[in-house]
Design goal:
two-stranded antiparallel ribbon
Amino acid sequence: MKTNSTILLKELLSIARKGNENINALKLLKHDQLNMKPHSGGWSILECLEHLNLYAAFYLPEIESTLNTAATPQQAFKSGFIGNMLVNMVKPKEQLKKMKTFKAMDPKGEVLGKDVVNIFSANHSKLIYLLQKAANNDLNKAGTAVTFTKLIKLKTGDALRFMTYHHQRHLIQAMRIINTSQ
């Protein structure tokens, strides 16, 4: 995938900012509503958010570190093969398909409190900040490690795409849980 860097960042920022509306709705829910599992099985809202918190704990510092090393912004962004593959795995589609996650990123069975929502909100705000900061950097620069191996480094743009679409995917999932339980 090749695209204009500015247009890509605007698109990602728009998606992330829309996520704030969902986060604000989630903050109003009671603990038992946040812990409710969908009738079809799967994660509760808190488990969805904790899953994203686990990813954020790894990726946000990695992305920030890459952005802190100066690099002249490039007009075009060209996604890497692995980065594009990871993004396409998490990018929301019409029909969300269940996916297996890495054991280290699976919150199933953990006792989770409402603080998970506040931590996620802070992580989401940090993602928005990094998307804004990325406008002054080269999205093609590789340097963001991945959770499953130290041998692969993602381009900054791919890491930002992965995090943004991953947040979007699980916020859609969380809102679907609310809508089907009412």
